[in-house]
Amino acid sequence: MMSQFYVYYVVALLCFKTGTVAGGDDLTRKDNQKGVDVVEAVVDLIRSNCIFPSDHEFLRRLALVQSDYGEDQKAYSNPKYHGGIWQIDQDKYNIIRSCPGKMSAICDQINSNLSIDWRHTDWEDLRKPLYSGLAAALYTMYGYQSDVIPSNIYTQASIWQVLFAPGQNTSVFTSIKPFVYNCDSMKLDLAFIIDDSGSIGFQNFIKVLNFMTNVTEDFPIGADNTRVGVVVFTGLPDLAFDFKTYFTKAEIQSAIMNIAYIGGGTGTADGLDLARTRLFNESAGSRMDATKVALLITDGYSNSHTNTKMAAGKLRDLGVTIFAIGVGDSFIEELNDVATPPVCTHVYSINNFDDFHTILNAIQKDACTAPLIVKQIEQVVNGTNSSIPVEVKTKVDIPKNNTNTGPVMAYPKTCNQTTIITETLCGMVELFASFETSHPGKAFYEYSGVAIDGLPSIMKITGDSQCRPLYVSYQATSLLIEKCQNLTGHFTTTSVSGEHPGSEIVCRRNGKERNCTIADFQLSNYKESLCPDPWGNIPNPCTPKSASQTSAKLFHPHPVDVTKFIKCDDLGEMYVTQCPPGKEYDDEVAECGKEDVIKVDGKDKQNLPDSLNHLCIDELRPGTHFYAHPTNKHQYLECDLSGHAWVFDCPANHIWQQDGLSCIVDPLYTTNPCTSLAHTLGQNYFPLPDPKKYISCDIHNNMSINECPSNTNFSDVLHKCVEDAGIIG
Q1: What DSSP designation does 148 have?
Q2: For residue 402, which of 321, 292, 326, 488 has the smallest C-alpha distance?
């Protein structure tokens, strides 16, 4: 047999299930969901749908102080309280349910963009994170009488105290550490396109330059990180310096402050055109694999609205995200035509030149989290668009012994079917894609995939009827396998627009082509390439557990077979494990199937007395096989398919919790003090009544009880074990 194929890994779909998922998941609309990922998904949906775009991180901070992102037991433990993650009391909900006054237009927008008829919701709906977040947004705008929340954290703390926490100290809010958006690992080409016209004046022009230097302050300037260029426009535009002129922060900030004020007309279109033709190109130091952002700063109408709109469109088509910053709001329509959609998150309007500080943090965050826009390539044949599929490749490096999580990639105008193929060398890449949100993740996505060294991910995207951009986020982790010791990991995404050419397998016998049979595959010399063995030749994602680690990831999804998973031991060895028949591995809960949420802790299962076996017959319902023991809170039952009950012991000092279908730390023994808020405040160690023991928290807010070495006690002041003569508590 002779096989011919364009891409053999597409053929592999004939042999096994891949890690690619279509249909997605949306935890924001499911009851009792919690966690940072869920909160970020809610905030991004509310912001990107222009419902509350100018909250300046208030909603996220509010979720942290109100319920620790839903991790606090008060979020969902009371069956009669339904305030959810944002803890919206029923009286507050009742006020905004009817959408009074200006809220009416916002409620209509919620209905239009999110398909939620707010006027017909119930308080119980707030157990869904998106509904709780919307209620918090509506009540904040209603109470503060504005849809723009000041960025100053002390002002936000006062708003929180007045609207949500009367009588509480604002220090609870102000003690939150600033949210960090890590730009260190991203390549960013950042351009300032600034108005130098006569209407600004010399003193205000200096304020513009100061704002520009402040924006650059928090970016990692360098040839391999953030590069900066500046275009100045009046009647004629000028390139102050391009992306390859300076590579240190001091040089760039000095060059900015030395830009001369000239005065003249407002040739905004010419400035945008100059940025496109002389700044965002390879000869000027712009990089193909860099996120491209332009900040336009102006104080009035341009010389030609039509030309400005056209010039901005050409610059956006080059893959540049444009933020328009206007001083004064009389020309907001022109700013809207310049900025990247949605304009609610890409247009900033301030009253005067002294207000730049009010948008500084937002501009820095937006530039840092802007997507890498994958430039579209059009093929024209005989004057018409070609139906030949167009391939666009994007390559991203994976730092050794590290994880790369950004930036989001955006494929604009994804009108037709698109296939996104991700291949990786010395890495494992998780991908999430969505049309609905600009930052998809585990809590909200429509498509997902996993690629691992030698085994690609293939996502087939159905075209969007509205031709919206497709956003793809990723988390890439380097693999510590032998062949990668001296190699830098990377992954490449290839998007193919239009109908995918697929693959062709040709079987020939005596020179005559015919359809291939299963036997042809099994007997072929290409069998290992076409149908990889799911038990062998799998890259090892496990890493040895270091002495300083209190926990390590012990379970990983199998790269090609969703009915298997990989288990790691402390030495970094991996074990491919088969799920029970009919079950698939769920990486969200690290289990096979949603019902398999209990791990046995060192004890064999025991028979339940026959007198209690009826519990399984009475209680068993689809999807649930675990129940509380009727007389012992430290045990739980597992019902098999025949209705027989088995007894398991929870770990020491744990009790069974039916709501979560898991064993939790017994509150009577000690309450888990490990919360996101405590972690934010730097509190990771806590005392116990026994001075020889203490609680330590890991990054996932799990607690562990530790014992001090002999002749030492735990000091709550020093947060460590000290000799008996030292300070205790």
Answers
A1: B
A2: 488
Tokens coding 372: 């890498």
* Eight-class DSSP state of 709: P
Q: Could you confirm whether domain 188-368 is CATH 3.40.50.410?
A: yes
Q: What residues form DSSP beta bridges with 514?
A: 507
Reference 234, options 267, 204, 256; nearest CA is 267
Q: What count of residues does the chain have?
A: 729
**Three-state SS at 497:** strand
Half-sphere exposure at residue 311, Cβ-oriented, CA atoms within 13 angstroms: 22
Q: Which helix (H) or strand (E) holds 62?
A: helix 58-67
CB 476 within 8 A of CB 488: no
Q: Label residue 384 by pLDDT band (50, 70, 90).
A: very low
Tokens 């607690």 map to which residue?
703
**Could you report the per-residue pLDDT of 391-440, keeping only the tens digit for each?**
667 777 777 766 667 789 898 888 888 888 888 888 888 899 999 998 99
Helices (H) and strands (E) in the chain, counts: 18, 37
128 within 8 A of 29, measured Cβ to Cβ: yes
- Side chain identity, residue 88: I
pTM beyond 0.70 = no
- Beta bridge partners, 428, equal 452, 477
Q: Which amino acid is at 434?
A: S
User: pLDDT tens across 584-623, in order?
Assistant: 787 777 777 643 333 333 334 455 555 555 556 554 444 4
| CA separation, residue 24 to residues 20, 436, 440 (Å) | 10, 11, 10
Domain spans of the chain, in order of start: 8-22+388-497, 31-174, 188-368, 538-594, 676-723
| 229: three-class secondary structure by DSSP | strand
Cα 189 to Cα 176: distance, rounded to the nearest angstrom: 31
pLDDT of residue 544: 72
Tokens representing residue 68 in the block: 């620790």
List, for residues 55-70, the tens digit of each pLDDT value. 999 999 999 999 999 9
* Other beta carbons within 10 Å of 698: 15
Closest of 370, 460, 470, 373 to residue 413, by C-alpha = 470
Strands (E), 288-434: 291-298, 320-327, 347-350, 372-373, 380-381, 384-385, 391-398, 403-404, 409-411, 418-425, 427-434
DSSP-derived secondary structure letter, 273: H
- Domain 8-22+388-497 indexed as CATH 2.60.120.380: yes
Return d(Cα 3, Cα 602) in angstroms, integer: 51
d(CA 158, CA 169): 9
Backbone angles phi, psi at 381, to 5 degrees: -125, 120
Q: Are 371 and 407 in contact (CB under 8 A)?
A: yes
